[in-house]
Amino acid sequence: MIKFNHLAKKYNTPLYIYNFNDIEKNYISLKNAFVARKSLICYAVKANSNLSVLKKLSQLGSGADCVSIGEVKRALKAGIPKYKIIFSGVGKRDDEIEEAILRDILMINLESEAEFDRIELIAAKLNLTARISIRVNPNIDAKTHPYISTGLNENKFGVDIEKAKQLYIRAKNSKYIDPIGIHFHIGSQLTDLKPITDSAKIVAKLLKSLKVLDIDIKFFDVGGGIGIQYDDETTIKLYDYAQNIFASLKGLDVTVVCEPGRYIVGNSGYFLTSVLYEKENNSKRFVVVDGGMNDLIRPSLYKAYHKVEAVEVEGEVSRCDVVGPVCESGDFFAKDIDLPKLKHGDLLVVKSAGAYCFTMSSNYNSRGRACEVAIEDGVDRKIRARESFEDLIKLEKECL
Ligand code: LLP
């Protein structure tokens, strides 16, 4: 049981709280699902990039999937070894590519022919070889929210099978490119196993055709995307997930790489916010809280559902919207939910707030970002200080 009242008093609100024991449990259950094969879990840093979260995962043996050189540096700083770091993303700047090559990370995951050209050019300039994987777009509908679906040709991600094959052949003949991996990622918050299994089959078939050409791919990267329960979703069973991937890899000696973000941290996190007051517009009830869409944008951006509950307040419930102080009608955490009558200072907890919540927060309306706290074995500790006004203006002050 997390003592929300105690934590609110100690650290103030709005506040993010992460249960590190849950993070550990999730990491281990996924790692165990892959036990029958060589596997590498590369945690998707974008889900929650707090250095203490990364350090915890690094101690468990995790690698990192990064989408900017900033994330690569975070992973390294947290102690994740370079040989477990992948640099993905549809657009990388030259300086990011150069630094990734110089830092000698496991591989750069490339997503287009034009990117291949840049990487080859930069590696040649450095007179080094860049290890790469290619993100294949299997043209499969992941059946998730359109904004987080990435496996169709209409999405900007990856290259089609034919193009991928051409690029692997080109890589084989290049002095500066070493193709060691193959990758797909068809979307996030996936609750249906079939699109993943179908994609694995398509990409494994391509892998086999590359073996015939003597192109020796060592890493089969199945991306991330395992969905979690925000509400009452049926989720994918990890055992089935791993077994279905293994089935497509029969006879192939490859390390399976998996890039989970949400699965590891999503349900390990809580966002705690205080009630400022209640108001009614005609008969519509609003609970106004001190957290806003700048702190946690998923409901506004994707109409995503997060369970919102009152902390230790009982009483007769009635319908209300839970809204923040930001000047946007889209600034809400929940609509039409039942909550008891609340007064100033009562606490609400927004659940499943460990993934894509703090990392997508902003300073909109000149609001400092929330404090982050870890709980492990019943002990709490601050892992990121609340942003002050001075923090907000630091980079502008000297320009006045
Ligand atoms: N690998 C790649 C290449 C990715 O693009 C992503 C997520 C992951 C792994 C991790 O996916 P996960 O296991 O967390 O589903 N902001 C959105 C989610 C965007 C996901 C982007 N890519 C949200 O709040 O739902």
SSE diagram, text form:
Layout: H1 4-11, E1 15-19, H2 20-33, E2 39-44, H3 51-60, E3 63-66, H4 69-77, E4 85-87, H5 94-102, E5 107-110, H6 113-126, E6 130-135, H7 161-172, E7 177-183, H8 194-212, E8 219-221, H9 238-248, E9 255-258, H10 262-265, E10 269-281, E11 284-289, H11 298-302, E12 308-310, E13 317-323, E14 332-340, E15 347-350, E16 371-376, E17 379-384, H12 389-397
Bound molecules: ligand LLP.
Ligand LLP is lined by residues 44, 47, 65, 88, 148, 185, 188-189, 223-226, 259-263, 298, 355-356.
Can you put this structure into words, describing what you see?
By secondary structure, the protein is α/β, with parallel strands linked by helices. The protein has 2 domains: 4-15 and 267-387, Beta Barrel (Lyase, Ornithine Decarboxylase, Chain A, domain 1), CATH 2.40.37; 34-260, Alanine racemase (TIM Barrel, Alpha-Beta Barrel). 31% of the residues lie in helices and 24% in strands. It has 12 helices and 17 strands. Ligand LLP is lined by residues 44, 47, 65, 88, 148, 185, 188-189, 223-226, 259-263, 298, 355-356.
CATH class of the largest domain: Alpha Beta
Which percent bin holds the helix content? 25-40%
The CATH superfamily of the largest domain appears as Alanine racemase
Query: Could you say what the CATH topology of the largest domain is called?
Result: TIM Barrel
Overall average pLDDT: 96
Distance between the termini: 48 Å
Query: Approximately what portion of the residues adopt beta-strand conformation?
Result: 15-25%
Please identify the structural class as seen in this structure: alpha/beta
The small-molecule ligands in this entry are: ligand LLP
The major beta sheet can be summarized as: 9 strands, mixed
Total number of helices:
12
CATH architecture of the largest domain: Alpha-Beta Barrel
Count of folded domains: 2
Low-confidence stretches: none
**DSSP strand count:** 17
Shape: globular
What order do the SSEs take from the amino end to the carboxyl end, as H and E? HEHEHEHEHEHEHEHEHEHEEHEEEEEEH
